[in-house]
Amino acid sequence: MNNVALGIAATLCLITFPQLIICPFHQVTFDDLLLFLNTSFKIYIFTMRATSEPCPYYVKDSLNESYYTFNLTTEESCKANTRRFNAVLGKTVENTPYMDIQNFTGLTTLRKEMRYYNNGEKCGIFAYRESRRTHYELHVWDIKFAILNGSKVFHSCFSVYYAYTSQLTDRRHECSHGCS
What is the top-level taxon of the source organism (predicted)? Predict the structure, then answer.
């Protein structure tokens, strides 16, 4: 099945069954999480926001089957800020792969669960709970974080991400590839 058909099917599944956290059509595995994180490329965190700003990204420092260390870079006023984080890797009782990021922005632990993975587009969708709401992020490798012939190279992943976030009316701006 090609990436476009997969994206359309996943989007239809999410629109039809928005109450489902994971559509059975694209159940991700723990191996998918390991495969996705095992890169030396930057992994951008693409999100829709209330304001326009550069997308943060992270780079692997080390990875094994239970632990992931990475450097997260954010930009504020075109000044890069890099911090090192550690994450414990695992899977829930429902077999949803996750990373428990330790000491993330003042929290003891922030759990990000991988809800969708597309190896061809080198991207995945992660969900986390904060302030009693579920938030979604589209993580995409640097080599696929591009526009080609007027459309995103990661368009199937974006379609699924958009299905998750379409109800968020205050999120109208896409984060950008870097400081302008």
Answer: Eukaryota
pLDDT at 18: 45
CATH code, residues 3-174: 2.40.128.20
pTM comes to 0.79
Residue 179 has a pLDDT of 65
User: How far apart are alpha carbons 156 and 8 in whole angstroms?
Assistant: 7
Tens of pLDDT, residue by residue over 89-108, are 999 999 999 999 998 877 78
Provide the H-helix boundaries in the chain: 3-16, 30-37, 155-165
Question: Are residues 179 and 54 in contact, defined by beta-carbon separation less than 8 angstroms?
Answer: yes
- Give the other-Cβ count within 10 Å of 81's Cβ: 10
Q: What secondary structure letter does DSSP report for 20?
A: -
